[in-house]
């Protein structure tokens, strides 16, 4: 390739490429900040994602050190165990920090506080007054008082009353990557009761689904009884062998006498919650 000449006809020397300054992004008003100090400062930046756009150094620090510090400081129950999973990236920690899914009940309207909102029935069996459909009781009829903290319940009738709810875990703050590598324990529970004057049947089925809506694992509880006392069914999914993307919570019930009205089982206090590795308590859900 021929030489490049300047205006005077003499060969023009190629200027050497400038090496990037390794301290770029670490100098504030000409004062050098060690990366660990800058990371601590950036962990309080609001909104933190804007800091990623400043420069490559800030982006790299935020994507690694900052999210570690922010999650450990601001996500109750988070421990260094989470960071043993090298496959997790900053978006996984961002959604965990933003939503704090382990602090909440992932079931919505588990005790009929919002009537029948967030539940779907197949076929539609909501809102019955004379039987054959779900009903809501603010004061339980024919059975013991509600368990502590519960003020309403769903009541079944003489034919099967069935309802379900699908929980999208990503919407709750649990990213696919997080579920794939961390696989937190998934806890489920629900209270049920019958009446003193009629028998009942009750069934709870909870299914873990992958992203193709295929069953990964499930739990089924069925019982027939004749008691007015409240009982709680509980189960923990752990060590499941695939990534879980959603949870199908399905319950149904009826009476055993086929009586008109609402003499079937009562259900309330439905809960689904997760626990982070190293965290024994189930949070405030």
Automatic annotation (TrEMBL):
UniProt GO MF annotations: ubiquitin protein ligase activity
FBA domain mapped to chain residues: 96-276
**Region Disordered, annotated ranges:** 1-25
Spell out the GO cellular component terms annotated for this protein, sorted alphabetically and separated by semicolons. cytoplasm; SCF ubiquitin ligase complex
Q: Name one GO biological process term.
A: SCF-dependent proteasomal ubiquitin-dependent protein catabolic process
- Entry-linked SUPFAM superfamilies: F-box domain (SSF81383), Galactose-binding domain-like (SSF49785)
Q: Which InterPro entries match?
A: F-box-assoc_dom, F-box-like_dom_sf, F-box_dom, F-box_only, Galactose-bd-like_sf
Specify the protein name: F-box only protein 44 isoform X1
């Amino acid at each position: 390739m021929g030489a490049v000449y300047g205006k005077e006809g003499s060969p023009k020397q190629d200027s050497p490429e400038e090496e990037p300054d390794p301290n770029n992004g670490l100098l504030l008003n000409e004062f050098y900040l060690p990366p660990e100090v800058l990371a601590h400062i950036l962990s309080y930046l609001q909104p933190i994602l804007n800091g990623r756009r400043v420069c490559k150094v800030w982006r790299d620090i935020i994507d690694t050190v900052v999210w570690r510090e922010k999650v450990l400081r601001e996500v109750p129950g988070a421990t260094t165990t989470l960071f043993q999973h090298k496959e997790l990236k900053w978006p996984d920690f961002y959604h965990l920090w933003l939503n704090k899914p382990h602090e909440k009940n992932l079931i919505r309207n588990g005790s009929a506080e919002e009537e029948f909102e967030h539940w779907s029935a197949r076929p539609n069996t909501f809102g019955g007054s004379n039987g054959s459909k779900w009903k809501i009781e603010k004061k339980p009829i024919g059975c013991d008082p509600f368990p502590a903290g519960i003020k309403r319940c769903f009541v079944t009738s003489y034919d099967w009353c069935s309802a379900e709810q699908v929980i999208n875990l990503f919407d709750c703050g649990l990213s696919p990557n997080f579920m794939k590598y961390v696989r937190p324990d998934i806890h489920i529970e629900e209270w049920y009761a019958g009446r003193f004057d009629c028998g009942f049947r009750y069934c709870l089925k909870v299914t873990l689904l992958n992203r193709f809506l295929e069953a990964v694992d499930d739990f089924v509880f069925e019982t027939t009884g004749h008691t007015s006392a409240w009982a709680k069914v509980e189960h923990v999914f752990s060590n499941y062998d695939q990534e879980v993307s959603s949870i199908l919570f399905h319950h149904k019930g009826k009476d055993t006498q086929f009586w008109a009205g609402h003499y079937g089982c009562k259900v309330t206090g439905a809960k689904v919650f997760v626990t982070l590795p190293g965290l024994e308590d189930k949070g405030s859900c």
